[in-house]
Amino acid sequence: MKFGVSTFITDQGISPTSLGVALEERSFDSLFIAEHSHIPVDRQTPYPGGGELPGMYYRTLDPFVALTAIGVVTERLLLGTGIALIPQRDPIITAKEVASLDLISGGRVILGIGVGWNREEMRNHGTNPSTRGRLTDERLRAMRELWTSERAEFHGEFVNLDPVFAWPKPVQRPHPPIYVGGGEGAFPRVAQLGDAWLANSASPQELGPQIERLRALAEREVPVTVYAASDDPGQVEGYIGLGVERLLLYLPTMPERETLEYLDRLAEVAARYR
DSSP label at 88? Predict the structure, then answer.
């Protein structure tokens, strides 16, 4: 079992560089950070967690800027987005950012992606919420072409690229792994475009049958990483029993001193099961 951390990096919590160093010192294998470009003031979309939207959603740093800073001060830590909102991102720029970070970090990028939930947020990016799934799939396919082809070309419903040159290419071949976030509605995307499923906070009891259905659909042993996983020993042991590849233990967004104390406790849990 591998152990990483998932969190929201904001302007009110520990700095990205201090967090990265602390995670590597405590032998975590990865960090996955959330993304929201902004939060509309007039918001009708309910928060999936229920209740009021937590303030950290309003204040996230750009994930690729933050991960680049972390990559410079670490050597082994895997640098993940958890998740990058592909319906809100230009595919050419995103492909460039991912490839550049993979080069700078020596091949340590994991691209966690999703279709998003905040309809007002995505509309501000010119995205129709009703077609965001198809848009995401096309942008991922276009990005793969940009990463792997000398003369990249793509023609689809939403993305059209006549032949282009795009460098740098990623260090990882054919490209950094794509971890697809979402529930069972994302399973076709995982099967067709993903290297792993990024399951969001599902309990072991929920996750077991879902993994079976995903692998039956994909016709392969899809690796599973659990995002924002509980550090409860019973839950951790349940994930181990399912053969989950990685747990991303959830780290609340806090100032540095409180963060380091919290990480010490998470590191003790991880050490118990490695």
Answer: G
Eight-state DSSP code of residue 10 = B
- Residue 43 in tokens: 């918001």
pTM: predicted TM-score of the whole model, two decimal places: 0.97
Letter for the amino acid at 95? Answer: A
Dihedral class, residue 107 (left if φ above 0, else alpha if ψ from -120 to 50, else beta) = left
pLDDT digits 0-9 by tens, 20-34: 999 999 999 999 999
Q: Give the closest residue to 178 by CA, choosing from 192, 164, 168.
A: 192
Residue for token pair 């550090």: 231
Q: Contact, 192 vs 203, CB < 8 A?
A: no
d(CA 28, CA 30): 6
> Is 228:6 a contact under the CB 8 Å cutoff?
yes
What lies within 8 Å, CB to CB, of 33 at 6+ separation is 6, 7, 8, 9, 60, 61, 63, 66, 67, 80, 81, 82
Q: Please say whether the beta carbons of 88 and 125 come within 8 A.
A: yes
DSSP letter string over 209-272? Answer: HHHHHHHHHHTS---EEEEEE---HHHHHHHHHHT-SEEEEE-----HHHHHHHHHHHHHHHHH
Q: Please write the tens of the pLDDT for every residue from 111-157.
A: 999 999 999 999 999 999 999 999 999 999 999 999 999 999 999 99
Contact, 64 vs 97, CB < 8 A? Answer: yes
Rounded Cα–Cα distance for residues 172 and 134 (Å): 26
Q: Among candidates 173, 175, 181, which has minimal Cα distance to 201?
A: 181
